[in-house]
Amino acid sequence: MSEVKNYLTPEDFEKFNYQKLNSNFLNQITIVKFYAPWCGYCTKTEPDYLKVYNYYEYDGDVNIMKFNCQQYENIKDIINSYQTGLQIKGYPTIAIFINSYFHNIYEGDRSASDIIRIIENIKNSIY
Q1: Taking a C-beta distance cutoff of 8 angstroms, is the pair 118, 95 a contact?
Q2: How far apart are CA 55 and CA 76, in angstroms?
């Protein structure tokens, strides 16, 4: 696959705000990369993020998604106002959600193998 196909919109974060995305996201791990197309670090991490997406493409327990923050200029303010603990301070930001609840910001190495290792650790701890 040549690109991550799962994109979020601001309306999705209204659902995150109520901590209920929809039934498709319950009992799942959702990883969201917040990025800007002009960001060099975002571009650099894209090949590894695509590997993660391809690895979990058919896994019903893991959603790999992206959010284009340039497309929605005020999204950082919107997300930061939701009181979920998620704050977008720079790009790329990789956020982890479990059962539709914000869990934490991934701050480890951005390699595909490290991101997959973290996801597998989370899966093993909740299933």
Answers
A1: no
A2: 29
Where in 36-106 does DSSP place strands (E)? 62-68, 93-98, 101-106
Chain segment 10-55, per-residue pLDDT in tens:
666 555 444 444 445 555 898 989 899 999 999 999 999 999 999 9
26: three-class secondary structure by DSSP:
coil
Asked if 62 and 31 touch (Cβ cutoff 8 Å), the reply is yes
Count of domains observed in the chain: 1
What is the rounded distance in angstroms from the CA atom of residue 57 to the CA atom of residue 4? Answer: 9
Does some domain include residue 22? yes
Buried b (16+ CB within 10 A) or exposed e, 88-123: beebbbbbbbbebebbeebeeebebeebbebbeebe
Q: What CATH code is carried by the domain that includes residue 50?
A: 3.40.30.10
Listed residue (105, 112, 115) closest to 47, CA to CA: 112
